[in-house]
Amino acid sequence: MAPGPLDLAHWSTWAVCAVIKLPQLAAVLAAGSARGVSVGSLLLELAGFLVFLRYQIYYGYPLQTYLEYPIIIAQDVVLLLFILHFSGNMKRALFYAVTFVGGWYMLTLQKWIIDLAMNLCTFISAASKLAQLQCLWQTKDSGQVSALTWSMSAYTCASKPRVTWIFFFSLLVLIRFITMLILNIWVTATILHYRKIKKTD
Q1: Mean pLDDT throughout 50-63?
Q2: For residues 67, 71, 73 and 79, what is the CA-based torsion angle, rounded to 10 degrees?
Q3: Model-level pTM?
Q4: Membrane spanning segments where (predicted)?
């Protein structure tokens, strides 16, 4: 049987997520610097992904709706370690690890905690995009920020709403994906804008 549009959406999303942070990692490694990449943005993104993943596991969402999140989280962790290494702040890695692992277990101590965290998840994830935007606006330089990584993030957000809607109706999750799509496109456009300005200077 030929794969349907939904199957193609699944596979394409997983394929993109499998390599989504690699362009950013490559840019940081090639330059030996994480200039322009917001640590605050990355930490908030990690927090949002962990809450979202924990929520979907807790409520028994189909595996297809969240399988890519462990892959992205692993890539974010590697990227964070590289950023901390190049900025000389590796001592913070243990603190961040303890905080995230502790938070992962605390989320499901009570049902109201995971529900509240999910209600705040969109704001957390949105704050991560805004933190990167603020960093770009302040420096007026895209530095080593990868436009390809951010554009792939936009693609995954664009492909997820239909999958989520079909498998498990959730307006809250749908709103999150649409919000993240808009902000990812905004960050991508901002990166390209400052890159164009730098080339014309």
Answers
A1: 89
A2: -160
A3: 0.86
A4: 12-30, 42-61, 67-86, 93-113, 165-192
